[in-house]
Known about the structure:
- The chain is of the alpha/beta class.
- Helices cover 48% and strands 23% of the residues.
- This is LysR family transcriptional regulator.
- Residues 1-58 form the HTH lysR-type domain.
Amino acid sequence: MNLHALRIFIKVAELNSVTKAADALSISQPAVTVQIRNLENETGLKLIETQGRGIKLTKEGTFLVGHAESLFDMEKDIENKLQQLKNGEIQALRIASTYLPANFLLPVWLAKFKMNYPSVNVNLYSGNSNQVLENLLHYKSDIAFVVNEECNNPEIHLDHLMDIDYWFIVPQGHKYDGQEVSLTDLMMEPFLLREEGSSTREILFSLCKIHRVPNLNIGLQYHGLNESIRSVVAGYGTMLAPEIAVRDYLKRGEIGKVFVKGIEVRRPVYICSRKRDKELALNLKRFIDYVKSSAKVESSLSDKSI
């Protein structure tokens, strides 16, 4: 496949315009059109269609753009690593993670790893599951950490790391503090919910559906976990929260834990990597081995929690 034509095609797709792509690439519009036509002839597929004064991608064009971007991202990744080798630099670790591992697991693991390998540069990016996995596929990170990810992407390998328990919590001294109650009764309390798209929010609504609880009493909605926990500490609301985030609050007597009849919530944490990477860099292997041993310790702490 003509990679020069493929680069031009990506620029046309990015700007939704042959004219704008020609200006951005400092070549003539006819030259851009010729390259697109050559690419269509080479693939035997219609890649773009006119739409008003611009263009739109066909289904085949959208497919090609996605894979072409990954190809050129891989090229950039190779160039960067070769430059690091040329400069005698130690390859950096680029890690992407969803909110929970990024805030409650990785900071401690990374700090201790750096104590043993102080010369290794580490960059941590956090985002939602879709952002994190896109980051990985486009070579902006070397590995990713996700929670409860049902990933059907054939290009991603999932390696189970550990499981995280979730607790129902209430303000300290609440009538349900330390009690076993039904889900129906608990759902009548004002609940603190995460934003749309939050997996914790989805768990709550799924539990209601499975157990035929008709209504969820929504008290407040937050776009963050810590904000929700602080409201409970302040004396308002009920919520579902990861045990590692609230364990210390419970030990200090700042919140209470509720036991819900017949319900235990546990979610897996995965290390994600690209299947096409046949061999991982030495520093990355060291970090993954360290994380796996640390996860065993964290899991044992969870088993001993209140």
